[in-house]
């Protein structure tokens, strides 16, 4: 990995699937990053090294269903922190709070256990990708309903032309992403 920086290295290991799930869509597939142990280590280390900094260190890591679970749980483990899953509606067995958000084709709802975080906790909110920003904003609102502070939203990929990262920043969320894909 001499000439490539981490971001370019990770981008070079992602797969673009044309016309999926619909014609004209360029799907940015992160699964190759997870399949190769060396690439997976570079990916996780990029996040872990950032959040080891005392100024950026969270109290807990929250991951968005479902790929945010993969990243978030490993990052939490590496940092010696707890992990909180933010699930799709109907998946959590205990008392929950919920947040509904708009999608391009309708709406969706995510839930969080009412005892998942404590008031005042600093939370790192993580997902695989930022597209329209709806899921991450819903996760932020859920955590804030319980009194936590979302200190940063993190993702592997930003798709800036879909407007999600701008919307999240305008909503007061600091963002950290590793790879940006411009254009379709």
TrEMBL record:
Its main location: cytoplasm. Homodimer. Its EC number is 2.4.2.7. It comes from Limnohabitans radicicola. It catalyses: AMP + diphosphate = 5-phospho-alpha-D-ribose 1-diphosphate + adenine. Catalyzes a salvage reaction resulting in the formation of AMP, that is energically less costly than de novo synthesis. SUPFAM superfamilies: PRTase-like (SSF53271). Pathway: Purine metabolism; AMP biosynthesis via salvage pathway; AMP from adenine: step 1/1. It is found in: Cytoplasm. HAMAP family: Aden_phosphoribosyltr (MF_00004). One of its GO terms (biological process) is adenine salvage. It comes from the Bacteria. This is Adenine phosphoribosyltransferase. Keywords: Cytoplasm, Glycosyltransferase, Purine salvage, Transferase. The lineage of its organism: Bacteria, Pseudomonadati, Pseudomonadota, Betaproteobacteria, Burkholderiales.
